[in-house]
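Appendix C reproduces, verbatim, an entry submitted by the partner laboratory led by Prof. M.T., so that reviewers can inspect both the input and the predicted structure.
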Amino acid sequence: MSHKYFPFRKALIFRWREYLLDACVWALSLPIASLIRLDFDPSRVAPVFVGAVVILAAVLQAVAGYIFGLYRYRHPYGSRHDANNLMLVVVVVGVTLTVGRLLVPASDDFPRSVPFIGLLVAFVLMAGLRLLHRYVMERNSRPSETAAPALVYGAGHLGQHVIQQMNRDRYSPYRPVGIIDDNPRLREYRVEGVSVLGGRVDMTRVARNTGAEILIFAIARADAVLMREVSDAADAAGLRLLVLPLLADILEGHAQLGDLRDVSIDDIIGRHPIDTELEAIASFVTDKRVLVTGAGGSIGSELCRQLVRFSPAEIIMLDRDETGLQGTQISIFGHGLLDTKEVVLADIRDAATIEEIFRRRRPEIVFHAAALKHLPMLEQYPSEAWQTNVLGTLNVLNAAKSAGVETFVNISTDKAANPTSILGHSKRLGEKLTAWFAKETNLSYLSVRFGNVIGSRGSMLPTFTTQIEAGGPLTLTHPDVTRYFMTIPEACQLVIQAGAIGGPGEVLILDMGEPVKIMDVAERMIAKSGRQVEIVITGLRPGEKLHEELVGLGENDERPKHPKISHTGVPPLSPADLADQHLVTRQSSPDRRDNDKEAAGLVSSAFRVDARSEESR
């Protein structure tokens, strides 16, 4: 019958096999305790008294074991929880017997100390049986000798868990033969019978002595610098480096802790541990109407995916790219029907349409990620930068102000710090316009500035991969060029965090770690591909910097609220101070390039106006 009608049946589960074994232990322990107390003289032992106490102990064991869950819950036999419950039950039974014996008249047939001695003997025997059972089970479940010998890098909690998982899976493709840890205090430390054999500098020697073929990286909060150093050491030792999935992927169900994979270039140049203040974000986003522009792009789509976790009242995904919107919708809602309210097809360059969307949907929080981002393309076509990155941002700001948006987060770029390109200047203007609207509304209108993200469409790494797969050449602008990198999920976590803690008019700058030399990245990617690919130096393009900056001249690097987010400010720029726009939209020239030369003149003029206004402040 169903437990729905007889709920007590589920509560009457009793592990009889374990109980009967423990009862037999009492039947053995109390006679042994009597012999110990009576100087091992069997003739002095009273079988009747001992038998009665054994029966009483068995009854008490059943009652206490059920009450404290020793025989009621199905936890692994011999586990830590089983041992804790066992100790509690045996102590209760032994103390009860001891107190009971003290309350009856003294007798030489059954001394008062026998129950206490029996308690100790019973616990040793019961615990020993459980440990023996556990040892046999774990030995039978260890991976076979055919499994690849593996070293584990890191003796912390994650490393211990990885070793336990391997030792308890007879079908594991890897078997642990040693641990590498750089903490000298952990030398000779053992985990599940596996010893710490040295640090990173000893890796080649340890690999040779153990015959290891694999190195499993098991440090949860490792940054890209450590990953690079360990990767280099593994290569030198002839080890294949495997890494665990990111914690965020495990929590979201996209991966399991045992899903080892080869180290990728993303791990080596863009892994940055993030401490996200979930409570601040939850109060910032939960039950709010949130709109994201550029929701079909790399940053915008990841922002949407992360924002949905905090249960906004509504997520509004706006983009002019219908295919991008469909991809974002599939990744969040599991379908790409494009017939629901959360997807909005619109162009931020269309002021009237943007105004109408904001008036009708009334968002409370806006993340403005829509922008043109390819520096050399915008150097050729500056009018596109002006119309999208400047006027498009102005359209969204105007609509946000009219709709009473409470928080506006403008996604900027490191190229806005001391800008030398059309892209950088256009994004700098976006920051200043955002600061002006913050001043006008006295609300949290702010910008977030960061460098390159790994894996975005058209970014460096996918381009390098394509060139390598095609057999080369791999093109690089300069042998000494460096860039900041961060993965898209990590950048978006900090963007949302910045929106929660940023003040009106501020520019919040994400800590991207140390800049990475692009030549090193290219050489690593070629080495991992196993191909012979030529690297061709093409020279820096107009507007490009050799080394990018995150903090501009005269800007602060203060971090009052989050260790990876700097707060600074930019001078506000009124929309009225922007240069006359009529040349940008002129179509008189039949040659697009001629028209864009005209536009370039206008954009440069606008930047000169902006620069003069900044100097006057």
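Residues 245 and 255 are 7 Å apart (CA to CA). Additional entries are available on request from the coordinating office.
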